[in-house]
Amino acid sequence: MSTSKEAYHHGELRPALLAAAEALLVAEGPAGLSLRAVARGAGVSHNAPYRHFASREALLAALAAEGFSRLAAALRAAPGLAGQGRAYLDFAAAHPALYRLMFGAELRAGSHPALKLAAGEAFSVLSGVAADRAGALAAWALVHGIAGLRADGHWPADVVLDSVLTRVT
Amino acid sequence: MSTSKEAYHHGELRPALLAAAEALLVAEGPAGLSLRAVARGAGVSHNAPYRHFASREALLAALAAEGFSRLAAALRAAPGLAGQGRAYLDFAAAHPALYRLMFGAELRAGSHPALKLAAGEAFSVLSGVAADRAGALAAWALVHGIAGLRADGHWPADVVLDSVLTRVT
DNA sequence: ACCTGAACACCGTTCAAGT
DNA sequence: ACCTGAACACCGTTCAAGT
Known about the structure:
Chain A is mainly alpha-helical. In chain A, 66% of the residues lie in helices and 0% in strands.
């Protein structure tokens, strides 16, 4: 076994940077997520991240892609359309900062192929349990809309989610 | 009539800053929306905006609040729930950068009372045409979800919106 | 290969002045 | 009142070196 510090010289810096980035994102919000702060969090110089990410935005995109992979796994573990709807909302509620990064304005999915791929993977899991295409899109838009409104503090706390989820056919 | 330059000395700087900020947001995205660039756009020193906004975030919040007011006006002009749904989606599609700022991760509505108020105003217009509270929330979440997915490029271009909008009761 | 320190052009914010 | 220029501590990114 090597110490974590030595590990950076053996290819472990990339995951260490992503972990530091997520910790920063949770602790200080997206504004605190500077590349230099991420490097400090991982214990390396402000310049070391460029060995693994082409830019700050590329690191953010990688973190968001990781979020989509985790969301896809959570959806796969949930049974049925209603179950996946609840799993989707649970994920967004459990990781609000990450969820906002995944869909936020600072990342254009169009310009990050790996991100778009990871997102498509999560959505295909949702589609797999819907009756038809319009139904899958409606369900996805509904849970995504609820998750977004909740994350922004626009969603009344006393609403029973199931009473809303069942309004979509 | 005074020239626009002189007008800054007579209380017109605030709207001029908001207009410059929106132009920058549209032209360069949220990353290009620096306070110093906004000041340059309005033709004043990098420091002048602090006479009207406490911080960069306060200026962003004011711009987002203006967006909610415009959205509310667009909703008021549309007849019925389906009409308002379409008006909501039209607004998001016509002003994608502004829409993303309104709901984006860089602004927490909770910490900007005026922003939360403006958002609540827009939502109350939507609620006014729904049959009940769960239906209003479902409709709002659905159009908001569709708007967000479209803005992020996750929405298939060939989907007929009405076929999805009618899935919500 | 992987990491570092110095450097560049920026940024938000503060402050002491100017009119 | 409203605006300015200098200053501070940051930031993303690049570059020339070090091992």
